Amino acid sequence: xxEYAELKVDGNVxxxxxxxxxEQERGFDISKLRxxxxxxxxxxxxxxxxxxxxxxxxxxxxxxxxxxxxxxIEQLADKxxxxxxxxxxxxxxxxxxxxxxxxxxxxxxxQLVHEDMKQIMLGFPSKAHPMGVLxxxxxxxxxxxxxxxxxxxxxxxxxxxxxxxxxxxxxxxxWSYTNARGIRANYPDNSxxxxxxxxxxxxxxxxxxxxxxxxxxxxMDKIFILHADHEQNCSTxxxxxxxxxxxxxxxxxxxxxxxxxxxxxxxxxxxxxxxLQNIITNGGDTKKFIDKAKDxxxxxxxxxxxxxxxxxxxxxxxxxxxxxxxxxxxxGVNEPEFEVAKQLEExxxxxxxFIERKLYPNVDFYSGIIMKAIGIxxxxxxxxxxxxxxxxxxxxxxxxxxxxEPIGRPRQIYVGHTQxxxxxxxxxx
Length: 429
Ligand code: SDX
Hints:
With 429 residues, the chain is mainly alpha-helical. The protein has helices at residues 33-37, 73-79, 82-91, 97-109, 116-122, 130-144, 155-180, 194-203, 214-226, 234-243, 249-260, 268-281, 286-294, 315-331, 336-348, 352-356, 363-374, 381-402, and strands at residues 4-9, 12-20, 26-28, 57-60, 65-68, 71-72. It has 18 helices and 6 strands. S-citryldethia Coenzyme A (SDX) is lined by residues 230, 233, 264-266, 268, 293, 301-309, 357, 359, 362-364.
């Protein structure tokens, strides 16, 4: 196998070292290309550009493989818990029993949120989108922990910020949910496991105790595990590039939340359900919507379909589809959206347009069915994605800072006006 790629330009040959990863992925290093040749590469949307070398998550889009620190997602979803997966992603290894106990205890210790956070929440209109609220509250945490602004503080202080984020984000999400409904906030219950505690803070009422159904808690736990990391996706790349300026972890995570909000990214799960409900309202005519998705003149896309990397099935969608079946049966819930989703998937996977473009259901296609059955409001689906993705964002930010990676600063090819003299306003047409 070649150790170099050779680039021939204007009679010159430039040697670009080839880097090979532990899964035999190969890329050539262009970090010296501009100083040697004056050339840069251009790859709008970074479809073919590696931003880093990472040890956290491996995915193979052709084979539908996803592993966190080498462990297959199918085994983690089946055997692990979200908090254990968070430890794995952030610290690199599965915890032993003492480590897991201590980790859980640290998180429980920090689940409370300063009462002044409620003043900030009260400032939001009840119709504020929960993702805008969440990113604001994540940034607001810097006000309560100003020491976190110091980019050179010790590793144990960074670890305290990591613990605070994992511990407080679910509380902030639950408080913003009850606040938007004018219901008294529920405080964390340290006797409960992480996800059960979150569900209880969300749904407990002053008038009626919310009993956490273990099947519901397990389904939510799996949803968080499946969303926990996904290598250099849009929001994770955002967290890394914001952190590369030595911005603090709260600000970097807030940036990730805002990137995830987009309907092409984490906002898709909300758009999937809205699309399915629209299909139902329109008489369940899936063919009409598939034709719309195929029409190059129609901006409509089949939400929850397609992926930048998976050009085969998204392993997470496979697991979530099975989970949806199980949770709906367990809850005795008949979600018409689930039937339409299955019809849509079946029709699309037989259609040349989708086959040709290798468009398959992605993680967002079935996750919303489960969250809706659990009682999560549709507009909060991207917020659930954020809770799930938080350990991944943290792990990736930590890796980038530990490797002391340089500030992210892509180049460009300028295609605007060449030099021209200033025109006084009297001479302008
Ligand atoms: C997530 O990157 C990650 O890892 C993301 C994620 C994670 O865990 O972090 O997996 C989470 O974001 C999942 C994706 C959720 N988004 C959606 O479901 C929105 C619908 N899907 C898309 O818009 C699209 O598929 C993307 C954004 C996901 C991927 O877009 P790409 O890779 O940039 O592909 P593209 O836009 O260049 O599309 C290629 C072709 C185009 O057709 P042509 O111009 O070649 O004729 O496929 C078509 C697109 O029009 N196409 C679709 C389609 N997705 C792509 N056509 C109809 N419906 C769709 N959903």
